[in-house]
Amino acid sequence: MAPMTTTHSSASPAALPRIAVLATGGTIAGSAADAAQTSGYQAGVVGVDRLLAAVPALAHVARIEAHQIASIDSKDLEVALWTTLAERITELAARDDIDGVVITHGTDTLEETAYALHLTIKTGKPVVLTAAMRPSSALSADGPLNLLGAVTVAGSKAAHGQGVLVAFNNRIHCARDVVKTSTYAVDAFHSPEIGALGWVQDGRVEFQRRVVRPHTAATPFVAGVSWPVVEIVASYAGASRTTVDALVAAGVGGIVVAGTGNGSIHTAVQAALADARARGIAVVRSSRVGSGHVMRNGAAPDDACGFVSAGTLNPYKARVLLMLALAAGEREPAALQRIFDTY
């Protein structure tokens, strides 16, 4: 399949796409007292107008409509913000004069927000998340170039129908695949299993492949105001059942386990999870490994205990999908497995 490419040239301002930029805070909007400081800064303190003013090249790429949605460090994100973003994106995308949406976000939970929106918003217009690893005050801050790239992608016709995308360090990723892989490097986001969708550079956008799993309008999920409580537990040497039992007592609706290797689970934790499943709590096996997939085991523990395989989803994205599945009324392992196999 030939690459899909679009290039923005010296078009008149009226001919440029109109892009809504929704700012939520994060490092891209962070500031420190010292330009050499790339840690220990305060996130989310720079407003969207200042972010845009720092990238004058945007005037040659798109007409911008700015919205400040939140001003947070994304480590503190609450899932209610997903509902707010989904509702605002739906409202904006319904307008004929909006061609795409960009969301500036913190890197810590960007992959979770991207996947939640990928499953819940109902538009074919491009929705692109971006972020930064260095605060706006830092030497060689990466936010301005990432923002320029994201707006360029959002204005590209080739991005239509691809679901929610992440534009970071010149690469374009699918929201389902992308993960944060470094605590400090500017090249911090990758799609480990199958790679990026394409790239953006100097006004050019090229996709090498398209997203094939259902997303956006092709899913039954909505970002409701009430998200079921789903928690994550880990399996490791010497693990006990204490955490699982505490979550069951607290009344959670589902548990995702970050297993070792192919989603394998310590015997003590597995016994606790089997007890949780017997009480109607959904249990999904993912892996703490950074890439690969969790194969469904035909006997133990999946069929025997009623567990679900997360496939290629890491524990954090598996939690997002399980919350949406539970909110849609699905509880039985077979139905949940079909959902994980599909989305």
From TrEMBL:
InterPro entries listed in its UniProt record: AsnASE_II, Asp/glu_Ase-like_sf, Asparaginase/glutaminase-like, Asparaginase/glutaminase_AS1, Asparaginase/glutaminase_AS2, Asparaginase_C, L-asparaginase_C, L-asparaginase_N
Chain sites annotated for binding substrate: 74, 107-108
Entry keywords, A to Z: Hydrolase
N-terminal signal peptide: none
Keyword Lipid biosynthesis appears in the UniProt entry: no
Molecular function GO labels: asparaginase activity
Residues at the active site: 27, 107
GO annotation, biological process: asparagine metabolic process
Short name of one Pfam family: Asparaginase_C
Domain Asparaginase/glutaminase C-terminal positions: 230-340
Residue intervals of the L-asparaginase N-terminal domain: 18-211
PANTHER family, sorted: 60 KDA LYSOPHOSPHOLIPASE, L-ASPARAGINASE
Family as reported in the entry's similarity comment: Belongs to the asparaginase 1 family.
Protein name: L-asparaginase
Organism: Trinickia soli
